[in-house]
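Re: beginner question about structure tokens

> Can someone show what the tokenized structure looks like for a real chain? I only ever see the sequence side.

Sure, here's an example I had lying around. Input first:
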Amino acid sequence: MLSFLDFNTPMNMSFEGVSAVVFYFTIYALIGWLLENTYSYFTRRKFFKPNFFHGPFKPMYGFAPVLLVYLIGPETNWGVILLLCFFIPTFIEYISGALLQKFFQRQWWDYSDMPLQIHGHICLPFSLCWILLSFACLKWVHPAIVSVYSAAEFLWLWIWPAVILYFIAELALSIRRHSYQLNEANSPDPIQ
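And the corresponding structure tokens:
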């Protein structure tokens, strides 16, 4: 069925295996940022949509494809593939939305006006879109990204630790920035 995945899924967690995971995560997080901002442009005429991170990365778009690539093998049944393409991105979107709302009292997206939604974090119409996007990613996008990785692997092996440090710094600075904004919003006005 998806026999192309047999050479795209390094199951070992060696230095090179971790390097590949970081590469895929980085590329998919960037693609997610582009996808969301393009969608925002076509629906709201505004390219830059508010983002938890300051830079051009959406981590939930990095996690979902990486999990799918590592959970789906060449012998995986069609039904299981479709279920994973539905549940993995939907679950990640729900957990991301719930955690962001819990810790920062803010929703970066809100599906409250959509049918069959849960807490505004997920909804059936977008979850169905995740099936199509995830399957297209597995079938066409990921093999192309594997080819890019193969061509850039020698250089990537030198820079991927710096990319991890970038994501750690981005996460720490984003938590600090949004915590500060939350504290500012919740602090009482000074007496005049």
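Each token stands for a local structural state, so reading them left to right follows the chain. The chain has one domain: 3-186.
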